[in-house]
Design a protein that fits this description.
The protein is mainly beta. It has one domain: predicted glycosyltransferase like domains (Thrombin, subunit H, Beta Barrel), CATH 2.40.10.220. Helix content is 11%, strand content 44%. A six-stranded antiparallel barrel has the order 2-3-4-7-6-5. β6 and β7 form a beta hairpin. The chain is globular. The termini are far apart.
Length: 119
């Protein structure tokens, strides 16, 4: 039964790795993001209904990795069209401001903007 989304999502052609914040082990890659949620692409199925401590490691302009730590609840999980991969949908629990900054940066980076008219 298809449902219409009311949250705008942005596909990420270049995937960002998501880590378990407690173990620092990779969980998978970001498939898409919104202000309230994200889709994770992983090699193992994710437990639906569970809450996870997650971390994104974002390279900064200074050459250092910057961490974005957050909690997320798994809402659904199903096998991806790619064999051996799973898609899982997460709702974020009070996302930090750094997460919102990441969304804005990705939106800017992956948006088509009109070229400035030359005089």
């Amino acid at each position: 039964m298809p449902t219409k989304r009311r949250i705008e999502r942005h596909q990420l052609p270049y995937y960002l790795k998501v880590f378990n914040r407690i173990t620092d082990k990779p969980m998978g890659y970001l498939g898409n993001v919104s202000m309230d949620g994200m889709m994770l692409i992983s090699q193992l199925p994710i437990l639906v209904g569970a809450r996870f401590d997650m971390r994104l490691k974002i390279p900064g302009k200074d050459g250092q990795l910057h961490f974005i730590d957050f909690y997320a609840n798994c809402q659904w999980c199903h096998e991806d069209v790619t064999p051996g991969h799973y898609d899982s949908g997460f709702s974020l629990v009070t996302p930090p401001s750094e997460y919102a900054d990441l969304i804005d940066a990705l939106r800017f980076y992956f948006s088509f903007r009109p070229l400035a008219a030359s005089a």
